[in-house]
Amino acid sequence: MLPTFPSRARSRFRAGAGARGRAVPLIAAAGLVAALGVAAPALAATPTGGAVTDTSTSVRWTAGPFVAPNVTGTTGDVTCGPGLCDDFALHVSTPSGYGETHQLTVRVGWANAAADFDIYLLDRNGSVVASSASSADPETIVVAPTSGDYTVRVVPYAPLGESVTGTATLTDVPANPAPSTATPPTYSQYGAPQSFGRAHDAGEPSIGSSHTTGSTFYQALYDTYRATWDDSVTPSAVTWSDVSAKPANGCATGGSTSLDPIGFTDRATGRVFESQLAGKTSLMCYSDDEGATWSPSQGGGLNSGVDHQTVGGGPYSPNGVGALPTSSYPNAVYYCSQDIADANCASSHDGGVTFGPAIPMYSLLDCGGLHGHVKVAPDDGTVYVPNKSCGGNQAVAVSEDGGTTWSVRKDPASTAGDSDPSVGIGSKGTVYMGYQAADGTPRIAVSRDKGKTWTDDQNVGAGLGVHNTVFPAVVAGDDDRASFAFIGTTTAGNYQDATTFKGDWHLYVATTYDGGKSWVTVDTTPGDPVQRGSICTGGTTCGNDRNLLDFMDVTVDRTGRVEVGYADGCTGACAQPGGAQNFDAYATIARQQAGNTLYAAYDALPNITPTSLSVTKAGGLYAASTTVANPGKAAARGVTTRLRVDGVNVATSSPVDVQPGRSAAVRFPGVRLGKGTHVVAVVVDPDGRIRESDEADNERRLQVTR
Predict the structure, then answer these.
(1) Cα end-to-end distance, the chain, whole Å
(2) pLDDT of 213-247, one tens digit each?
(3) In 3-state terms, what secondary structure has residue 286?
(4) What is the 3-state secondary structure (H, E, C) of 324-350?
(5) Which residues contact 232 (CB under 8 A, 6 or more apart)?
(6) Is 409 helix (H, G, I), strand (E, B) or coil?
(7) pLDDT given at position 207
(8) Higher pLDDT residue, 304 or 340?
(9) Which of 114, 510, 580, 630 is most buried, judging by how many CB atoms fall within 10 Å of its CB?
(10) Which residues, in sequence order, are CB contacts of 37 under 8 Å at separation 6+?
(11) Residue 534 and residue 549: Cα distance in Å, rounded?
């Protein structure tokens, strides 16, 4: 019997609505084998084995060339035979506690990026410890450096005659900065009405907010839902409406057919787009009246791709060649998609009614085919499309001229993952890229030069013990504020193993208020898992654990509240303690309720002010006292008050905390005053350390005559 082992099956081809896959090279290695008449065996790993220890931390080997492809993993467990797999015996020996600061990194790469190999790390019993089965080159596995005997198995999915080079290295765990000291925001969950026919068929949703009206739009499959909010109550109340595009309201193609859904809401104008993939274009309609009526669109540019489409928009770039509006619509609109050997993006200059020709963003020699959602910088119109695997790194394809030319810009500190990354762009162009790392953890990096360099790359789930992550989604507001939403679990291991993985998944949101230097992360569903057990991100060959499909989305409303559109996969009895997974996909929005938002102008701030000042004489000394009040909406912590006499600093009080709506009495020691009239003043927060809603009412004066 040929040996088999569990796969992380991936879809290479589309098979129905909502399915996603990765493109494969048009050159078929199987054709080479057929021409030879035999399945040529691969050359064995050289050397056949090696060891890494805390004193000898790296080992290297080669294998190949490989000719025969092994695609058995697309339909179940990978099956190995002569030339169809190659094994390297790896021994790991590390002292106790070594794994607290170190990790084992296994990389396998090859010269021709159009080829495709997968790697699996097996323990001595043949069980899969970890795997990397994406379109990355190199494929990378990062695991704890636990002592033992392992096998690194290379599977040539589309080898194209390539040889591979492997390395196993004990590396330092990247250091994480201190977590944010900001007050964590809070969230409430809002599920769509049960009366909506496909409320429980809402995988891979898109979400957007109209800043002109305050409405939120949730798109999944054929359905567009509008949520309107009443923030006069806590938690906010919501009213849902089904405003889906149909022939009856102007969209001739609405609700009829789809190979993939996507939605986009232009924050600035309120125009809502719904797009259904249809081969090398899409069936797209748009609405300017919040879904009451819809108008048809061309759908995409000529020679667009066949998969993984995304729609976005924003200001025109001043560098665009001929990129000027051809209608009264003020913003550019972009339709980007993946083809067989490249990925393309087309631009519209009339608000998405028509599109110019699709222009390649990159080829498979640069990056894997699948990409994330297109985003446009609100300050200068730079266009970004993120990709999970560009030479083994996460990256962004960037256009600074309105989609005319593109550059791939990598984060060299990152590793490729299985979920599409996401970018959010601040008001002045700072880019935040959130991604799933090779070890499954949620990481985010920051670029302030359009992706040319990256800083502050860090794990935002470490403080809550998150080991595995799927569906990164990032949004930004002010330039120094952004939120990173993801579905994560504190359970380690192969999260795509439907048989053995037993983790509970929750919706997390990490937020920065200091430009990405630190993040505060919250579990928004602590008592209600989004999923129990495995989540498959492998496309159409998955089982029922692909109920959430392939992504989720996040937006920001006009006051800076974060809104996450996701499919809840664990509902009813599943959500109860010990409940069994029911593989639902329930349309749900997680909406920020409290805490600072992504727009500082709407922050709940303290307002500390001296409401009284008195000076009393006792024994030849004059003692001042004041009442410091906080009529603001947030606590003021560490408030100091300074006493000045005739402009000279005399004394500073000890710090006190003042809650909103409360006050504190502050008294100063007596001072001697000379004859005449003196100006006695108290100044609250004299060094300007506390941010307030009103900075102009911090001083009170009194004249005292001796």
Answers:
(1) 106
(2) 999 999 999 999 999 999 999 999 999 999 999 99
(3) strand
(4) CCCCCCCCEEEEEEECCCEEEEEEECC
(5) none
(6) strand
(7) 98
(8) 304
(9) 510
(10) none
(11) 13
H/E stretch holding 704? strand 699-705
- At position 157, the amino acid (one-letter code) is Y
Q: What is the pLDDT of residue 391?
A: 86
**pLDDT tier at 175 (50, 70, 90 boundaries)?**
confident
Residue type, 248: A
User: How does strand 407-410 pair with strand 393-399?
Assistant: antiparallel
Mean pLDDT value across residues 643-660: 96
Secondary structure of 606-663 as H, E, C letters: CCCEEEEEEEEEECCEEEEEEEEECCCCCCEEEECEEEEECCEEEEECCCEEECCCCE
Say how far apart CA 500 and CA 506 lie, in whole Å: 19
Q: What angle do CA 640, 182, 531 make, to 5 degrees?
A: 160
Say if residues 291 and 244 touch (Cβ distance below 8 Å). yes
**Contact of 122 with 154, CB cutoff 8 Å:** no
C-alpha distance from residue 238 to each of 144, 226, 234, 566, 624 (Å): 45, 10, 11, 16, 52
CA-based max dimension of the chain? 113
Backbone angles phi, psi at 34, to 5 degrees: -60, -40
Q: How many whole angstroms separate alpha carbon 209 and alpha carbon 228?
A: 10
Residue-wise pLDDT for 308-367, tens only, equals 899 999 999 999 866 778 899 999 999 999 988 899 999 999 999 999 999 999 998 899
CA distances from 84 to 1, 81, 107, 292, 635 (A): 14, 5, 19, 56, 65
SS3 567: strand
Cα–Cα distance between 683 and 663 in angstroms, integer?
15
**For tokens 């990405």, what's the residue?**
516
Distance CA 397, CA 450 (A): 10
